[in-house]
Specification:
With 354 residues, the protein is of the alpha/beta class. It contains 12 helices and 12 strands. It has a 7-stranded parallel sheet with strand order 3-2-1-4-5-6-10, with helices on both faces. The protein has a 3-stranded mixed sheet with strand order 7-9-11. Helix 6 packs across helix 8. The chain is globular. Bound molecules: nicotinamide-adenine-dinucleotide. Residues 10-11, 13-17, 37-40, 42-43, 63-65, 85-89, 104, 108, 132-134, 164, 187, 189-190, 196 line the site of nicotinamide-adenine-dinucleotide. Its EC number is 4.2.1.46.
């Protein structure tokens, strides 16, 4: 079959990547979609069961840091567009192991950029390198600060956000130095199905179901903006096809929640869906020592993508949370598979044996 486009989507076995792959494979049968993933602890091909047999989908297990392999993959699949999501993504892990974050997020991104540049031979017509990034590169806000915009200066604090900031700069450098067509989006916290249960929402749903303590950092005062992952995937589709070259687009839900209030919504929703009386799981909340350097607040202004590309979140937060809780409760096997083995050790290292 002759395909109209050949896209390399990295990190497609992870949380957001799997939603992006699903959307592109189903929506664009005339594109060949190559999912490149190393399958670290966070990569899980079970996230893609429903699309793995589609003719326009191809999985390749590889490391984005492997330059020779990237060169040959770009050639073999005649890649003309990249959507780069592969990364180490968990702030707590970056505090314990910053080297892995520099390696994958900085060197891996640079390796992909250089492979694209060499294979594309600086003939960049109809090519695009799209880098998916985070709002954490902008640093932290006080409660009364205005929201992050695309022109907010970078001020990352954690090894994770420092590595993502660095990779964003390399992407811009490839545009400014070599003329590579690039685009970047910076998104707020995502939630939804297939998220690894080290992140707050799936972790808490899982713990409530098992009547385990809910470890809340500090006093639970930190504020995050939350977006349903499928809305992020829709935004990525729009930016990929209609975003202006060399631009940055902020993607967020205009949906700020203080952690402790969010946790109360999760508890209420899980209790309701499990048929428990109101308040059953309230006592599981357990305050633990705050994360080192915990950023107080992130909040993103996504007016630009709304005005330019017509994107808006499609789901109200309560609706998104109800859908998400339902999905985790109905997909026990997916969760049990992940939370056995290495996860148990990780959990004990993080929160002790409770
Ligand atoms: P994730 O941890 O769920 O998935 C990351 C994927 O990348 C995994 O499948 C993993 O196997 C793969 N990977 C890791 N190292 C690799 C390597 N060296 N080579 C090839 N593949 C490798 O992450 P996520 O939450 O889906 O995030 C995806 C991207 O979106 C990341 O770049 C992240 O920085 C960004 N982002 C995430 C959020 C969020 O709330 N989760 C918000 C904004 C931006």
């Amino acid at each position: 079959k002759i395909y109209k486009r050949h896209l390399l989507i990295t990190g497609g076995a992870g949380f957001i990547g799997s939603h992006v792959i699903r959307l592109f494979v189903n929506k664009y049968p005339d594109y060949q979609i190559v999912n490149l993933d190393k399958l670290t602890y966070a990569g899980n091909l079970a996230n893609l069961k429903d699309i793995e047999d589609k003719p326009n989908y191809q999985f390749v297990k590889a490391d984005i840091c492997d330059f020779e392999r990237m060169l040959s993959l770009f050639k073999e699949y005649q890649i003309d567009g990249v959507i780069h999501l592969a990364a180490e993504s968990h702030v707590d892990r970056s505090i314990k192991d910053p080297f892995t974050f520099a390696q994958t997020n900085v060197m891996g991104t640079l390796t992909l950029l250089q492979a694209a540049k060499i294979v594309w031979g600086e003939d960049f017509e109809d090519k695009l390198f799209y880098h998916v990034s985070t709002d954490e590169v902008y640093g932290a806000l006080e409660f009364d600060d205005t929201l992050f915009t695309e022109t907010t200066p970078y001020a990352p604090h954690s090894p994770y956000s420092a590595s993502k900031a660095s990779s964003d700069h390399f992407v811009r450098a490839y545009h400014d130095t070599y003329g590579m067509p690039t685009v970047i989006s910076n998104c707020s916290n995502n939630y939804g199905p297939y998220q690894f249960p080290e992140k707050l929402i799936p972790l808490f749903i899982h713990n409530i179901r098992h009547k385990k303590p809910l470890p809340v950092y500090g006093k639970g005062e930190n504020v995050r903006d939350w977006l349903y992952v499928v809305d992020h995937a829709r935004a990525i589709d729009l930016v990929f096809h209609q975003g202006r070259i060399a631009e940055t687009y902020n993607i967020g839900g205009f949906n700020e929640w203080k952690n402790i209030d969010l946790i109360k919504v999760i508890i209420k929703t899980v209790d309701e869906q499990l048929g428990h009386a109101a308040g059953t799981s309230d006592g599981l909340i357990t305050y633990v020592t705050d994360r080192a350097g915990h950023d107080l607040r992130y909040a993103i202004d996504s007016t630009k993508i709304k005005d330019e590309l017509g994107w808006e979140p499609s789901l109200q937060f309560e609706e998104g949370i109800a859908k998400t809780v339902k999905w985790y409760l109905e997909n026990q096997a997916w969760m049990d598979n992940i939370t056995s083995g290495a996860y148990e050790q990780y959990y004990e290292d993080m929160y002790g044996n409770r």
